[in-house]
Amino acid sequence: MALKLKNSSNFVNLILIAAVSFYLIVCLPKPAYAMHIMEGFLPLGWAIFWWVVALPFFVLGLRSLTRITKATPELKLLLALAGAFTFVLSALKMPSVTGSSSHPTGTGLGAVLFGPLAMSVLGSLVLLFQALLLAHGGLTTLGANAFSMAIAGPFVAFWVYRLVMQTGKQRLAIFLAASLADLITYLITSIQLALAFPATTGGFIASFVKFAGIFAVTQVPLAISEGLLTVLVWNWLFSYGREELKMLNLINSDQ
Description:
Helix content: over 70%
Strand content: under 5%
Number of strands: 2
Shape: globular
CATH topology: Arp2/3 complex 21 kDa subunit ARPC3
Structural class: mainly alpha
Order of helices and strands: HHHEEHHHHHH
Number of domains: 1
Strand order of the largest sheet: 1-2
Largest sheet: 2 strands, antiparallel
CATH class: Mainly Alpha
Distance between the termini: 22 Å
């Protein structure tokens, strides 16, 4: 009887997450002027360069996902949840200065759960769908956006989590992993823009300071908020997805 109630509770929670996601994505449409580098903004040479850099991670990520789903098919629903979490959070845009906007990334959770290579695929697919459905980002700039959000951010999240876990403070590790994944995404994007558009006076450094400074005003509090939200989602998973977390060796069998 207890098992039936638990399964019923899990199903209701998943329905609520899906309903909220649908409402945020479909029922609240708005023009997308977000930090994803927009279509045609990068010079062709730099667009190709970032595609070349990102593709090997995507291929390795496909192998990682294949290995995960074959070894533990029970984790497919959790994989979908990690992808949906990234999609919803990175689609939420907040106005920033100079008419631009900032948004969370949502990649830290998936990186902790499945590793950075798996998130390189999930994050890239999220960016692809956002470019096609929401005009958020672009196809020519997909390589650059994928490197910053789906590759650099998850790798930082993964290693920060492992480093902080040496202290035994798991929720702190989750918070820092999600927050720093968000911040590193915007630092990498600022680097990408500065490389493509160096300032006439001061070159790359001056341009990087300008781009990074523009988004720091809104991105720092957003990163903190994303870290706190990710901890809340982790607490939910700890309560209702404990078996899956044990499969991933993220909690002990006696927890």
